[in-house]
């Protein structure tokens, strides 16, 4: 499965390029409107072409990500997919209750984390040692919150709540909660 | 004139508050209070930026989250609502060429916004009540963390603001449809239909286009006001629900939190809350762009019927778009994530993109234009949304949301760039444009200072959003603190960009004070001696 870091690099490059381009366009436009132009009004065809471009961009983003980001389909179909390993985690009073520590996973396994909360809304996210995010989900009380993820690389991951649950939740961090072994 | 003379009398003594009509005074009061609350939000923002970069021993964790709770609410309700409602209570009658339906109701809106904001801000400041603006159930009723008394005052303050918003909506629709004394009977139904966009929609399919009864910016105000009304109802209902739990706690019996389904509540509350972010803000901003473009150029708007239709589409989009806030909620049905979260949200790229293009083309067709302050700030506002909307569309994708939700990406390149660069620069454009109209000819003290304001605000806003976004892409979460020095470089750079915003605001503040003078500022708050319902004094 493609690493989320790779996806984020792609996003960074695409968005940076877009930002530079749109800033240049607006700056050019701001300069040109102060200059005398031809009498001809703006051609409506160009406006409709821009409209068509917006439609294509709006629709294509989600199609492209559906085809290139594997965890998107995995998430939508997760109830039909059998996991190689399952972990059930409870959160009570701003504290993660883990079935084991670390939760050991073999490289290449597809794992289901099912997280429940007894009281507040929390978050459940795994982070690499450099603090970058692998994935996250919200944890709502009174509901089953589950996520399916395939671990293709060995490593250790820190668990932290990714949702604000009051100032008491500030230190909901479990270092090396997950270990992926070869 | 010496500096001190100008400070007291205003630039060349041109601003004479005694010449103002009651309508002008009311509008200027909204603007002044809105700018004061903007200063609150900027200072709070700077405190948080510094705490994220280097911990300040005198800002406790509880206090940090109390600031984080108050900051967006003061910014949106205290500042933006004040400036926008004040401007629209002036512009709707101005464009409809008839008096405001009720000046008294306008004063009530002003008082409720100003007073309500101060009540909830004080409650948060004193009691550290901090469930954030999201109020995820059952956090606002978690009395093991938060003071119940502080919470009651906090919710009461929000309710006052909402009451003010409701009065604003009534005033707007009544002003559009009512018949002033001595006038021929106005076609209230047809006016309402035009304001809501039905005439624009029909025109798209008619061979012979009919004239619109309501100017386009007024139609935008009316449509945004529909979302304001719905949003007000949702927030008020939610506030009452939370108050029930608070009153129960005070009386000694604790109601079960599980009586409220957290997911249903989150859907309900986000539906209402998103009517601000993805509803009235976008619709009001598009209306403001159209108004600014036509006032700056003195020409008709390009593709006016399309613009009206896009506003109507945006209204419907804003009612069905909320689920992009629940894409990481695994219990949320997948179909809602795909249809509401992804597809309908993508429509905002189209509606806002059309507003962007229509505004630019209207300016283009009027070349050559002088690069005035309103035009400059209008370009800033357009750029802000051109940067922020695509950032939002990206995070409203099921794949990307898994690795972006609740990171600094959401709140940096999307939220802060949209609000600070897009929305606020549009508001500044309107303030610079309307200043001479509202003050009967006051002259801006310094054009150079206005340029400092422009560049500091633009670079500060984009810079802060960019550095927060970079941290977010590296995994930095929002709504938390880091203790091990993670992301410090990004946070220092974001704080420096934030400082630029502060410098920009101080330049603007000094410029405005020197323009109207301290005597003028006081005079705005004294009752008008002119007994008229007219917007402007006779002869203007």
What is the CATH architecture assignment of the largest domain in chain A? Sandwich
Looking at how many chains there are and whether they match, the oligomeric state comes to heterodimer
Strand order of the largest sheet of chain A: 3-9-8-5-6
Task: Look at the structure and give the mean pLDDT of chain A.
Answer: 95
Q: What's the total helix number of chain B?
A: 16
State the name of the first-level CATH class of the largest domain in chain A: Mainly Beta
Unreliable parts of chain B: none
Helix content of chain B: over 70%
Measured by residues with Cβ under 8 Å of the partner chain's Cβ, the largest interface is: A-B, 73 and 84 residues
Secondary structure tally: strands of chain A: 9
Number of helices of chain A: 3
Sheet/helix structural class of chain A: alpha+beta
Write the H/E string of chain A, N to C.
HHHEEEEEEEEE
CATH homology superfamily of the largest domain in chain A: Cupredoxins -  blue copper proteins
Q: What low-confidence regions of chain A span 5 or more consecutive residues with pLDDT below 50?
A: none
User: Which strand-content bin applies to the residues of chain A?
Assistant: 25-35%
Structure description:
The complex is a heterodimer of chains A (182) and B (540). With 182 residues, chain A is α+β, with helices and mostly antiparallel strands. Chain A folds into two domains: 4-68; 83-181, Immunoglobulin-like (Sandwich), CATH 2.60.40. Chain A is built from three helices and nine strands, in the order αααβββββββββ. Chain A has helices at 4-32, 44-68, 70-76; strands spanning 85-92, 95-97, 103-106, 110-117, 122-127, 133-139, 145-150, 155-160, 173-181. The radius of gyration of chain A is 23 Å and the shape is elongated. Chain B is mostly helical and 540 residues long. In chain B, 72% of the residues lie in helices and 0% in strands. Chain B is built from 16 helices and no strands. Chain B is globular and about 60 Å long. The interface between A and B is large, with 73 and 84 residues.
């Amino acid at each position: 499965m493609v690493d989320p870091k790779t996806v984020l690099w792609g996003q960074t490059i695409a968005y940076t390029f877009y930002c530079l381009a749109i800033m240049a366009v607006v700056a050019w436009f701001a300069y040109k409107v102060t200059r005398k132009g031809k009498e001809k009004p703006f051609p409506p065809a160009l406006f409709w072409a821009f409209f068509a471009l917006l439609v294509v961009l709006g629709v294509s983003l989600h199609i492209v990500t559906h085809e290139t980001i594997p965890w998107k389909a995995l998430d939508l179909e997760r109830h039909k997919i059998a996991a190689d390993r399952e972990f059930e985690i409870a959160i009570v009073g701003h504290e993660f209750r883990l079935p084991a520590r670390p939760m050991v996973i073999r490289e290449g396994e597809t794992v289901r984390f099912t997280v429940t909360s007894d009281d507040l809304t929390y978050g459940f996210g795994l982070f690499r040692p450099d603090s970058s995010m692998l994935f996250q989900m919200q944890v709502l009380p009174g509901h089953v919150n589950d996520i399916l993820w395939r671990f293709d690389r060995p490593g250790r991951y820190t668990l932290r709540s990714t949702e604000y649950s009051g100032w008491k939740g500030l230190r909901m961090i479990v270092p090396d909660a997950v270990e992926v072994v070869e | 004139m010496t500096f001190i003379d100008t400070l007291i009398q205003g630039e060349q003594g041109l601003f004479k508050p005694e010449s103002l009509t009651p309508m002008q005074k009311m509008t200027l009061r909204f603007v002044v209070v809105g700018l004061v609350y903007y200063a609150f939000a900027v200072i709070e923002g700077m405190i948080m930026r510094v705490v994220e970069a280097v911990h300040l021993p005198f800002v406790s964790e509880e206090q940090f989250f109390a600031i984080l709770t108050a900051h967006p609410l003061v910014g949106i309700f205290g500042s933006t609502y004040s400036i926008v409602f004040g401007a629209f209570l002036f512009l709707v009658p101005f464009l409809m060429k008839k008096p405001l339906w009720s000046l008294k109701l306008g004063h009530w809106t002003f008082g409720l916004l100003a007073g309500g904001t101060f009540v909830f801000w004080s409650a948060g400041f004193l009691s550290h009540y901090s469930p954030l603006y999201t109020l995820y159930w059952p956090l606002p009723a978690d009395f093991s963390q938060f003071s119940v008394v502080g919470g009651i005052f906090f919710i009461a303050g929000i309710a006052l603001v909402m009451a003010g918003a409701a009065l604003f909506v009534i005033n707007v629709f009544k002003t559009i449809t009512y018949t002033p004394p001595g006038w021929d009977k106005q076609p209230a139904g047809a006016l309402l239909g035009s304001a809501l966009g039905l005439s624009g929609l029909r025109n798209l399919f008619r061979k012979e286009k009919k004239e619109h009864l309501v100017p386009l910016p007024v139609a935008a105000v009316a449509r945004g006001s529909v979302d304001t009304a719905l949003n007000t109802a949702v927030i008020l209902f939610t506030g009452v629900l939370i108050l029930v739990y608070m009153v129960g706690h005070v009386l000694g019996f604790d109601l079960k939190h599980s009586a409220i389904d957290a997911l249903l509540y989150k859907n309900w509350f986000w539906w209402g809350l998103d009517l601000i972010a993805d509803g009235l803000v976008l619709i009001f901003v598009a209306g403001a762009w159209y108004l600014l473009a036509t006032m700056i150029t003195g020409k008709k708007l390009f593709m006016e019927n399309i613009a009206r239709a896009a506003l109507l589409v945006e209204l419907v989009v804003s009612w069905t778009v909320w689920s992009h806030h629940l894409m990481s909620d695994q219990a949320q049905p997948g179909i809602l994530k795909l249809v509401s979260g992804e597809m309908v949200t993508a429509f905002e790229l189209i509606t806002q993109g059309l507003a962007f293009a229509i505004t630019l083309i209207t300016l283009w067709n009027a070349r050559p234009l002088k690069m005035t302050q309103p035009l400059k700030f209008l370009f800033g506002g357009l750029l802000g949304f051109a940067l922020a909307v695509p950032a939002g569309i990206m995070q409203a994708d099921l794949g990307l949301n898994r690795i972006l939700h609740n990171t600094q990406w959401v709140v940096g390149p999307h939220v802060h760039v949209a609000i600070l660069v897009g929305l606020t620069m549009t508001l500044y454009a309107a303030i610079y444009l309307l200043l001479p109209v509202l003050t009967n000819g006051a002259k801006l003290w310094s054009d150079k200072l206005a340029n400092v304001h422009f560049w500091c605000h633009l670079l500060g806003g984009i810079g802060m959003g960019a550095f927060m976004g970079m941290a977010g892409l590296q995994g930095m979460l929002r709504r938390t603190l880091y203790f091990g020095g993670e992301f410090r470089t990004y946070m220092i750079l974001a704080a420096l960009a934030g400082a630029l915003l502060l410098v920009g605001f101080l330049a603007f503040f000094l410029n405005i004070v020197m323009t109207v003078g301290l005597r003028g500022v006081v005079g705005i708050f004294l009752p008008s001696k002119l007994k008229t319902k007219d917007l402007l004094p006779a002869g203007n």
